[in-house]
Amino acid sequence: MSSATLSRWSRALVAAGVCWLVVWQAAAVAGLPRRTTVALGLYGFVLHVVFGKAYSLVPSYFDRDLAWPYAPAITLPLAAVGTAGLALEAVDGVPGVVRPIGAWSWALAVAVFLGTLVWTLRENLSGAETGTGDHNADRRRVDRAANLFVPVVFAYLAVGSWETLAARTAVSPVLDGYPPRATHLLAAGGAALLVFAVGFRLLPRFLVAEIPDWVPWIVLPAGALGPAMLAVGLPAGPVFRTGALVEAVAVVGFAAAYGHLYRSSDRRRVGFYGPLVGAGFGVIAVGLGLSFAFGPVDPTLVAAHYRLNLLGFLGLTVVGVTFQFYPPTVGRFLGAGDDLALAALGALAGGLVVELAGAVVSTPLALRGGRALALLGTLAYAYLVLGVFVQRARQ
After folding, report:
1. Among candidates 316, 233, 224, which has minimal Cα distance to 278?
2. Residue 324 and residue 333: Cα distance in Å, rounded?
3. 238 lies in which domain range?
4. 245 — phi, psi (to 5°)?
5. Does residue 184 form part of some domain?
6. Cα-Cα-Cα-Cα dihedral sign, residues 72, 73, 77, 80
7. In a domain? residue 187
8. pLDDT tens, 2-23?
9. Lowest mean pLDDT among 42-51, 185-194, 325-334
10. How many whole angstroms separate alpha carbon 182 and alpha carbon 164?
């Protein structure tokens, strides 16, 4: 019963994240404030999916069972209310009380998530026990390295969420309450570092390929240090520039590692294209970030930078991995299959390319067109994933 409960509510968190993705892209097309779209993309889409998959994957990666199977059921409504409040606070006409309600609700969601996982892993926080079977004994060094950085992810989620709360309430901040600091702590430190850590365990198994044991020791320390330096150093200065360089090492290293896995594998499933294209967008995003750190800052390109990171790197990676967990080919409904999944990935990637081109050449029509195309991609993605979820629920 506990396993079924965990599976059902973890899937519900992923489903909520998929719905937030659609809302995010619709808000971008509608031209809602950037603070609104960032909240929908980061807190809504990315972190809801992070919560859902972390609840189901992380305990097994540490050879443990989740201490409280109902924790995802508590996290979901708190995170949903928190996301809605954080997204709506920047919209004209919304009552001021929404701001602290959203912040407190989000903080409570993260407290439940972190409290449950830390208690679950309390006797194995270093991750030395990996749950890796003897048939995968050659993967244990990489698995231990990946596990070691998961508690760092927890720390970033805690500090980033505390900064989110402090910026909207009377709670004293750890830093200074500057909103982009919390965004970088949560996106680069919470989400991207978890992608690196979980990815080094998950992706080699998906592709039935291997990476050298030393690769995680390049990517993971850089991915752990870079977000802190970016958050502390914003908006400029030597610490910020060093952080941009360190984070670039992490993203480019991860992209190279996944490229190696993809080339080494003879498997070609539609879900594998998501991380591949996402890694490419991640490299472009850190390139833009370096240009901001060492040169002038163009506000239009700043918007493109966040879109490339949230929708390109993190988003397409999540989309691809969810297609692997929930294959479109198992769907028994109209349109289900790899063709629509590939079209969804193509529309998301193509929309980002058009949007980026529009930002570079200052063409508003291209910006809007790219976002509209990305919205179509998200609708196709949501149709496939949610359709599979509904199908499972009816079985």
Report:
1. 316
2. 18
3. 145-267
4. -65, -45
5. yes
6. positive
7. yes
8. 788 888 999 999 999 999 999 9
9. 325-334
10. 6
Residue 220 inside a domain? The answer is yes
Number of domain units in the chain: 1
The DSSP letter of residue 214 is T
**pTM flag (> 0.70):** yes
- For a pLDDT cut of 90, what percent of the chain falls above it? 82
- pLDDT digit string, tens, across residues 321-335: 999 999 999 989 898
Residue 278 has φ and ψ, to the nearest 5°, of -60, -40
Give per-residue burial for 245-267: e unless 16+ CB within 10 Å, then b: bbbbbbbbbbbbbbebbbeebee
In a domain, 35, yes or no: no
Q: What is the largest CA-CA distance in the chain?
A: 60
How far is Cα of residue 114 from the mean position of the Cα atoms in its chain? 16
Whether the link from the prior residue into 216 is cis, omega within 30° of 0, is no
The pair of three-digit structure tokens given for residue 94, joined into one six-digit string: 């919304």
Q: What is the pLDDT of residues 196-235, one digit of tens each?
A: 999 999 999 999 999 999 999 999 999 999 999 999 998 8
